[in-house]
Amino acid sequence: MNSGEEFMKRLISGVKPTGEFTLGNYIGAIRQFVEMQSNYESFVFVADLHALTIYNDPTELHNRIRELVGIYLACGLDPKYTTLFIQSENLYHANLSWVLECNSYMGEMSRMTQFKDKSKNKGNDSISVGLFTYPDLMASDIILYDADVVPVGIDQKQHVELARNLVERFNHKYGDTFKVPEPIVPEAGAKIYDLQNPTKKMSKSDESGKGCIMLLESPESAKKKIMSAVTDSENKIYYDPDNKPGISNLLVIYSSLERVSIEEVVKKFENSNYGEFKREVADSVANFLTNLQAKYEEIVSGDLIDKTLDESNEKVRKLAEAKVKEVFKKIGVGRY
């Protein structure tokens, strides 16, 4: 593990272990963690406590946690540069979350997008309190380690803004305690869309399964999904998310996996038809999945997962304990 002395800033982010992990998760989140780990002191975690806002089969959730750690490592997160850990193995996340809940207001929490959307559809009587307060836990995840930056998708930026507000409020009340984190939203690839409905985000919860590519599904299955992706009738390949969402989505996928700009991709396929373009995208996706899955199988059959988590836990617990002790002392609880 790095001491952090050679890094200017600290990064933190995490992903919930619910459902299978998608190509959208990789392009929109995990790839950014991998690219940034050599320039930041990186902390990346499995956000398993956040999964509890809705019911999950316990055995399946347990398996998904380990699966996600394996995927993180297979995607290129390197324990030499990234502190990779499981949220629930450090109880200080929940300790600090309660303090933040007591410094949050009902009004600002009720304006959080996920709560607003679900309460509108279901009504408050059928929604867990955890869904209302989980943004405080997310803020705790960030500020517990004095993170400077948080890479997020566009739809998660609101949570970092809440964390910033809570930091400023707490620091004003009790004195300088937390850093004010900055969100980083990648310019391209921040959101990958459903292949069958390219105006909707690619999601693990896709019921048909036809619009979403899973990281551990067979490459041949993924190729078929790309070939059947919804496009338009123009048969011209250029980037226009408003008028050509299907083709634009495929351009982002290809650009992200091949590590070239969208402009270069458009130039490459300017004389191609949709079928030719889709075949290239399908081959790119299949090659990516084949390589990723080979690495994943090697990792889960060895001891790298447990070795990585054991080393990381020791580090994050020391940091978190020190921060929570500082917080408790300032707010006047305990014997500190």
Helix-strand layout with pairing:
Blueprint (H helix, E strand, L loop, with lengths): L9 E6 L7 H14 L4 E6 L11 H18 L6 E5 L5 H10 L4 H5 L2 H10 L6 H15 L5 E3 L5 H18 L7 E3 L34 H9 L17 H14 L3 H7 L5 H27 L3 H28 L5
Parallel strand pairs: 1-2, 2-3, 4-5
Tell me what the structure shows:
With 336 residues, the protein is mainly alpha-helical. It has two domains: 10-190 and 303-331, HUPs (Rossmann fold, 3-Layer(aba) Sandwich), CATH 3.40.50; 219-297, Tyrosyl-Transfer RNA Synthetase. The protein has twelve helices and five strands. It has a three-stranded parallel beta sheet with strand order 1-2-3. A two-stranded parallel ribbon has the order 4-5. Helix 2 crosses helix 11 (274-300), helix 6 crosses helix 7 and helix 9 (245-258) crosses helix 10. The two termini are 30 Å apart. Residues 1-5 have low confidence and may be disordered.
The largest pleated sheet is described as: 3 strands, parallel
Euclidean distance between termini CA atoms: 30 Å
- Give the DSSP E fraction (strand runs of 2 or more residues): 5-15%
Q: What do we call the CATH homologous superfamily of the largest domain?
A: HUPs
Overall helicity = 40-55%
Number of domains in the coordinates? 2
Shape: globular
Q: Which structural class do the helices and strands define?
A: mainly alpha
| Mean pLDDT across all amino acids | 91
- C-alpha Rg (nearest Å): 21 Å
Number of separate strands: 5
List the secondary-structure elements in sequence, H or E. Answer: EHEHEHHHHEHEHHHHH
* Quaternary structure type: single chain
Please mark out the parts with pLDDT under 50 across 5 or more consecutive residues, or reply none. 1-5
> What is the CATH fold-level name of the largest domain?
Rossmann fold
Arrangement of strands in the largest sheet: 1-2-3
Give the C-level CATH assignment of the largest domain: Alpha Beta
Q: What's the tally of helices?
A: 12
CATH architecture title of the largest domain: 3-Layer(aba) Sandwich
